[in-house]
Amino acid sequence: MELTSQPVRTGPLLAILSGAPFVASLDLFVVNVAFSDIAKSYPGHSLGEFSWILNGYAIVYAALLIPLGRWADRIGHKRAFVGGLALFTLASAACALSPSLWALVGFRVVQAVGAAALTPASLGLLINALPAARRQSGVRIWAAAGAAAAAFGPVVGGLLVEASWRWVFLINIPLGIVLLFFAVRLVPDTTDKDSDGGVHLTGAALLTIGIGSLALALVQGPDWGWTDDRVLTAFALAVLTLAVFCWSNARHRTPLIAPDLLTVRSFAWSNITAILFSATFAAGLLSNILWLQEVWGYSALRTGFAVSPGPLMVPLFAIVGGSLTTRFSAGRVAALGSTLWGVGTLYVMFSVSTTPHYATALLPGWIITGIGVGLALPTILSQATADLPPSRSATGSAVVSMSRQIGTVLGVSVLIAILGSAVDYDTFRRAWWVIFAVAIASALASFGMTPTRAPSPDSAVTPDNAALSAIPERNLS
Q1: 238 and 217 Cβ atoms separated by less than 8 Å
Q2: Euclidean distance between CA atoms 444 and 7, whole angstroms
Q3: What is d(CA 271, CA 267) in angstroms, rounded to the nearest whole number?
Q4: Whole-angstrom Cα distance, residue 208 to residue 282?
Q5: How do residues 272-329 score in pLDDT, each as one tens digit?
Q6: Which residues contact 124 (CB under 8 A, 6 or more apart)?
Q7: Residue 284: phi, psi to the nearest 5?
Q8: Is pTM, for the whole model, over 0.85?
Q9: Which ranges of 225-257 does DSSP label H, i.e. alpha helix?
Q10: Rounded distance, CA 175 to CA 111, Å?
């Protein structure tokens, strides 16, 4: 890995390289509260069809993270970062001007391409610019920024929708321009000369088709009927393409997910936990917003303020989580966070009724879930790369980010499948039970994140990943 000799200013560097993924992560969730207003602009579509505004973005983002990460290795991380950020900003403007729902979904896909380019490039730049002693704390700040963005999305969205839902995309333009200006001026470049730039495009296509087909079957099942030929075909296609993906991935020279990485215990279990926690988080967030708007009749602005106490807990308890990991294992901290998310969900389920009682019925549970997010998500994301050698960190981060987006797609899709077109308490109650069950599964999986032996501070190589260190980097990244 080659690093330019340009002097590094750590504060501005962290702000820029965490700020761009913050904007991309914010956009994943900010549209949740805009659903009702978008529906008014594009009448005649079902909730399942509107879900593609979220799922189309997340699926493409997940599938392209690793291929575009390798592309960044070849052309230079700074060039990929700036190019991805520029594309994301331009696509945001197109989203704001979309004349139809499916045009909006299409431009969201273009946004996802930009986000998938800038995310791994930003972490690669960060890891290689920071000294070894500050690298782990830098990664935690980077991860915490993404977690805070995901939690604050509904609040920002609620404020912007008061003007127009189109502002949830227009706001990205000035933010993108500012970040582009400072990135060009202040961020040093890195390039991986040893990387062959190999991209498993077939694997990316198979993963996109597989996850997309599964999401299609789940979200359209209530409208088309679960025994409809189209739904059954989508399920069959999902099983087939995902099976072929696993087979192809295991045999490809530059696989999308390097099988060797999965031999690292903490890395493998962090990815499992990321899928489960992201699924319960995405479903829980959207279900509470739909409850507030569709059952309690809250406006987008009122919804944003109603959920704001939860997000306020995330940055604070991300710091608390970092402190706790110095005394307890990362697995225990993430398990505590996942459990609190589930407990908060149960509190909401048993407290709410069709008559609004925000202060006693929803607020306490939402604060508990916010604490859970702050403890769990940054811990999961940082632990995924904690036991990998520094040269593998960018690749490992791309894989766990991909897992997170896959979990988001599955969570939203399952929620839509449960809710269908119903907005009654019994239907939401079934959804909340499923969200709680997945949160507990995430808590149990978290215990696997703890390595059997602590890594050495210099090499970050454990007995689990010692074999990885002898493998040329181009085979894994």
Answers
A1: yes
A2: 44
A3: 6
A4: 19
A5: 999 999 999 999 999 999 999 989 999 988 998 898 888 888 878 988 998 898 899 9
A6: 69, 72, 73, 77, 190, 394
A7: -65, -40
A8: no
A9: 229-251
A10: 15
